[in-house]
Amino acid sequence: MADASDIITYIGVPLAVLGVLPIxxxxxxxxxxxxxxxxxxRKCGLESTTRGSFMAGVIEVSLPRFTITPLDRKEDGYWTQxxxxxxxxxxxxxxxxxxxxxxxxxxxxxxxxSDLKVPQAEIDLGELFEFLLDRGAVPxxxxxHMLRVSGLWTPTGTSLMLSPDGxxxxxxxxxxxxSDGVLSLAxxxxx
Length: 191
Prior knowledge:
191 residues; alpha+beta; three-stranded antiparallel beta sheet; four-stranded antiparallel beta sheet
């Protein structure tokens, strides 16, 4: 006949182990997510500070926020595209070579490596238009008109510039991403 200590041993111990499994899962998931994030950042060439709270499953990543300007026309990189643009979300500006100045750092709290995104860079709209015009982009009359009329409330996805052949969008309005009172843009330049 089984006594009380045997019941606790045969039922209580497995239940305790099952209760700890979610903690192990969260720990391992956070560990591998942090590892993937560090690998992605190294691959993109971004310097960052990463911290992981393995028990909570949250990874904190501090990424630099840049102010960018086009290179001088006489510089070699002005007419070429960046050989290794960032594959991360929000990194469309890394398609081209720029003068970069770190202005601040953006802290992101994420749980999955797919949530990682490059902070938006700041650039003067006139300089960006001049740069893209040099590369053959064509202004989209409807999009420019919408921008003039609506300002910051221009609908997301509105095309501002077209590709040199005029068939595809090269510059469009993007979702505002932690940029209150600033126009968010995305490049869609094809190689």
